[in-house]
């Protein structure tokens, strides 16, 4: 089904190309004046600035955007990972004729550079040879400043995930405060958020025709600054939509109001008035219940029992009905930056309203005051159709890093060079994830033909191909071509997730298109194996046992990564993730179909520590679950509050924005202190001797000293290996096992502990 294909937006491939189309297709987008000269260019129409190394592949946003603009006829230059200490690097390609396009890269620059504990990373996967410090903190701001220094009159267009997730006032984890919209700090002319192709193409052509960026204010998926609300718009306070205080009884616009003359009728005997449907009047139902009068008025027929018995009296009463509002001319006012920065409750409220206005089928414009200026967000972009997705991904990508990098290894490229992106978006709505806020809940899928063509191109063009495709996926591997059963229902839906608390009955869970794609892909000559490396929504997968069988028996290379994220319902409800029952159901299918194929295969679960809503007891229970099922995990993800995520609002406010937020609403426990976050991570890595002193200390404080000892029922042993160095405990004190007094116990390391292995280790 083609969602949103009913002429709601001009197809991105239907624009008349810009005159520079005559220059043809560049082997790679130029990064120097010498390359421009070789192409016969005297100037660039658009220059893209990116925090990533330039890799000409559709998995890298700057390359995808650049090739898209090239296909529209524009000459596009690339400034990748420039030296930001001064403006010199930003003049390397000369002055762009139309605008600078600014992106921090595929990742948020702060997430890219800092760990969840705010420690600087030692490498950068998007840089040649993983070299660190090749991009600044808050790269969009820095690059924008330098572009303005280089050419002050050139418009600035900002986008990508960093700008997209900072389009309004947002909590910044790294400075521990609410920052204002990135539009103000970058001094950009316009911001493109979400899947920006549609907005970008329209914006570029309109600028090329001479329109000023400041006058272009009607494109969906854009944000910009205004002085005031324009005439003709109906402004709605967000607090009236979702009241963050005492909730008054809502006024029923259809409620019948009696005037003073009728007050005497409101006796005990007449309080039970009932509306009697009129078989001959009205406009709907079985003849209707109201007779239509003047516009906006209806006359209901009422029956009243006469006092003292007798005949039934019939009366008519005029009722006013509000005309249906035009949502395209409604703007929802969010609490001002000054208010949300000072009041965490209002911040959580604003976050909730923002997410409720995220469906492109019914979302309204949003506005938020910052001082004397208004940050205006147009509704989200209309998703791309399958034909448009193919258009974007079928560009003549070189499928390789720019030659300037030589033989340098770029880890991000090495990871995806043999993978294929088959779709975008995610309707899971996980609160800790920013995919929904950026790519949207509507799944945008490529055609089978386009995907298979790319597999063949990898086989024929990408150096080092051995016959293994590492992934056919996207944000979630098994959401390909899955959508609501009804386009009308989908466009009116305001749910935050299609699969939480359970899979929506209106969601088509048919995986047959994906099964067919898998079979055709692995039948391509030269392809030996198709692996699925993307995240898998297992509660959705179990709705199609045929899909699970296909996946397990043909597309798992011994291990399959899935992400339950936690074992405890209390935490899962704050994540909007399914309970462990769904995991158990998938695990049973996985093991059954693996056995039928005669294969030894293992599920590798991923978990998040210190997520909002998590208590020490929750983490202890997760550790006990892990030990019960013999998991010893090396990778542990500590929760990182990224801008605009729902879980970030929980982290900052201590409230749950999945429900109406008030001062008296549910309080969410939040692990903010460093020692608490370390403890939560230590529970997942209960098997690491370095964590044992901290865990023993915590278990005693929790009254669970019974879990300390040498037996299978114990979580950690009472001894500490003498070979270890100094261990830092949760309170910051030092513990040196080599100098500590040994603890006497029967034997040394328990046999049961020695034999305790991760399932993944058993396979080796």
Keywords:
26 helices; ten-stranded mixed beta sheet; alpha/beta; Rossmann fold; 30 strands
User: In one word, what is the shape?
Assistant: globular
Tally of DSSP helical segments: 26
The CATH superfamily of the domain at 19-235 and 329-377 turns out to be Response regulator
Mean model confidence by pLDDT? 87
N/C terminus separation = 44 Å
Q: State Rg.
A: 30 Å
Low-confidence parts lasting 5 or more residues at pLDDT below 50? Answer: 1-6, 246-299, 727-733, 737-764
Helix content: 25-40%
- CATH classification, class level of the domain at 19-235 and 329-377: Alpha Beta
| Widest beta sheet: strand line-up | 3-1-4-5-8-9-18-17-16-10
**In total, how many beta strands?**
30
Most strands sheet: 10 strands, mixed
Strand proportion: 5-15%
CATH architecture annotation name of the domain at 19-235 and 329-377: 3-Layer(aba) Sandwich
Structural class: alpha/beta
Q: Care to give the gist of this entry?
A:
This protein is α/β, with parallel strands linked by helices and 764 residues long.
List the helices and strands and how they pair.
Layout: H1 33-39, E1 46-50, E2 55-56, H2 61-71, E3 76-80, E4 99-103, H3 109-113, H4 139-150, E5 156-158, H5 160-164, E6 170-172, E7 177-179, H6 182-186, E8 190-192, H7 197-208, E9 222-226, E10 234-237, H8 238-241, E11 274-275, E12 290-292, E13 297-305, E14 312-316, E15 319-320, E16 330-334, H9 337-342, H10 344-356, E17 365-370, E18 373-377, H11 386-393, E19 400-401, H12 411-416, E20 419-421, E21 423-424, H13 435-439, E22 444-445, H14 448-461, E23 468-469, E24 471-473, H15 487-492, H16 512-522, E25 529-530, H17 538-541, H18 545-554, E26 559-565, H19 569-575, H20 580-596, E27 602-609, H21 616-628, E28 637-638, H22 646-653, H23 674-684, H24 692-701, E29 727-728, E30 734-735, H25 751-754, H26 759-762
Parallel strand pairs: 1-3, 1-4, 4-5, 5-8, 10-16, 16-17, 20-24, 23-25, 26-27, 27-28
Antiparallel strand pairs: 2-19, 6-7, 8-9, 9-18, 11-13, 12-13, 13-14, 13-15, 17-18, 21-22, 29-30
